[in-house]
Amino acid sequence: MKAPAEDNPAQASSPTRRLAELIELEESSTGDWLPEELAEVFQHQWSAALPLDPEPNPGTAPPNSASPTHAGPPPLQTYGDLFAHPNPPIHLLERVKEFGKTQHAQADSSLPREIALALYYTSIFAALTRCGQRITTLSDSALRQGALWLLAQPWIDELTKSLARLGLARLDSIPPALQTTPAA
Question: What is the pTM of this model?
Answer without folding.
Answer: 0.72
